[in-house]
Predict the structure.
Amino acid sequence: MTKHQADLSLLFHALSDPTRRSILTRLAEGPARVTDLSEPTGYSLPTVMRHLAVLEEAGLIASAKDGRVRTCAIVPEAFKPVRTWLDEQRLIWERRLDRFEAMALKAMKEKDE
């Protein structure tokens, strides 16, 4: 497995959980304290910390500690490999569908003749 694929696996794993996606959605509005991120989830602080660790390991967020307060912020550029991979997949499938459509139109035309 190449380094790029390993990064994608970490990113997709981090994005696979709805709690982590909701945390990212909140962080898209701006940095937030861990306690503020945990409140809407209904989970205990240690559980939320594990979710944050997964996001941080994937590079999707960064955190900083100031005294007893840990603040998290989203890292927008970390999403680029996911977007690139999805764009590549979209292009592959669009080409396949275009070829399929051309083949279907040709078959219909031949049937009408």
